[in-house]
Amino acid sequence: MKIMLFVCGEGLGHTSRCISLAQQMKASGHEVLMGAYGYSKDLIETKGLRTAEMVPEIQLVGDSGSLDIKSSVIATIKSGQFLRIGKVHRMLKDFDPDIVVSDSYYTGIFSAWMRKKPVYLMVNQSNMEEFFMGKSFFMRSLGKITKRFYTMVFRKVDGIIVPDFPMPDTICKYNLDLEKRVLDSVFYSGPLVGKKYREVREAELKRPHVLSTIGGFGYREPLFHKVIETARLDRNINYTLLSGPSIDSDKFTSLPENVTIMKFIEDQFPYLKSSDLVIAPGGHSMMMEALSFGVPILSFPDMGHSEQENNATSLEEEGCGKRLDYSISPKKLLDHIHQLIENDAYKEKAQYLRSLSHALNGPEAITEMIESKYLNQGSQKKS
Asked: CA-to-CA distance for 118 and 139, rounded, in angstroms?
């Protein structure tokens, strides 16, 4: 079977989960072509996966820890990228897949419909109009148009894949607003994680250990420094901080001995397995990876980013982490770190979700579901 897998490149969470899915599809004997762009495309290619270059659908703009929706819309229109969708259609025509899977990349969905191909939408958010609430009349109107758009998409696709734990443990549940008429087409696959817990060898790290994926660039830089100040308050807790490729880690000349800064980790799963706690933004895929490895999370969602804020709220309600904000003091942050490391209830809930992730096996579950749908469609055509 030939499978086209489109990837939304806004945030590497989409990329990491699509890599996991593509690897499983290849292992199951299918021919897979991934459509991606930017750094997302580069990362996919390092995994040895066949990739075609797509065009971005949206450009995100933010400042001081918040997402600026109006500026993002204006930047997207000015870029003119949406005028190049013909490139996507031509690529789909040349590859001629049997089935299309699109991770929040809607241009790929419309191209699949034009080619009369079965198409499945992978999504962890279906209430995008929240981004436009409380804004100007123009922005609220744009939000209503957006809702009508994706409601139509949800009705017409062949299936909707939610790469999360099934209800009631779904972390992205507050980001889902699905009509009753489409619920039968929704498939909760479980997390899409690149490696299985039992296959990963722990990194040699001093415990207790905190892994922070808060980058040190742009509006997250103040929080990055705040984590370092927190580490100074208790030298018995060890930290690995990911700064991102744009930060020169050599400039940090007076780090406490319990802090290590790294630009990038090629394989972060050994670090996850050796950590007692993760400090992260509110991105869905990072949460799925940490919880699939049984690690509680302190989440700092970007302000004004309703999807991340909802994820963090659900995380706290589920008892596997806490939602915090950028204004927190180092002393208060240390209190939360102690609580999540020392309170068995958080660890037990995270360990339960690790077991559930293993049982669900998201990449394999999606592959088997698509195979079954494809075979059923073939049988129906013959009859």
From this structure: 33
Q: With the CA atoms of 375, 380, 382 and 383 taken in that order, what torsion angle do they form, in degrees rounded to the nearest 10?
A: 140
Number of neighbouring beta carbons within 10 Å of residue 97: 21
pLDDT in tens, 332-381: 999 999 999 999 999 999 999 999 999 999 999 999 999 998 888 765 55
From 322, 314, 310, 288, select the one nearest 130 (Cα to Cα).
310
Please state, in angstroms and rounded to a whole number, the distance separating the CA atoms of residues 8 and 340. Answer: 33
Tell me the C-alpha to C-alpha distance, in Å, between residue 27 and each of 216, 364, 365: 36, 10, 13
Chosen CATH of 197-358 out of 3.20.20.70, 3.30.70.2860, 3.40.50.2000, 3.30.870.10: 3.40.50.2000
Residue 24 and residue 121 in contact, taking contact as beta carbons nearer than 8 Å: no
pTM of the model: 0.87
> H or E element: which one contains 367?
helix 362-382
Domain 2-190+361-382 coded CATH 3.40.50.2000: yes
pLDDT, one tens digit per residue, over 58-114 is 544 444 444 444 444 444 445 555 555 677 888 899 999 999 999 989 889 988 998
| Residue 67: other Cβ atoms inside 10 A | 20
pLDDT in tens, 175-190: 998 999 999 999 999 9
Spatial separation of the C-alpha atoms in residues 362 and 289, rounded to whole Å = 12
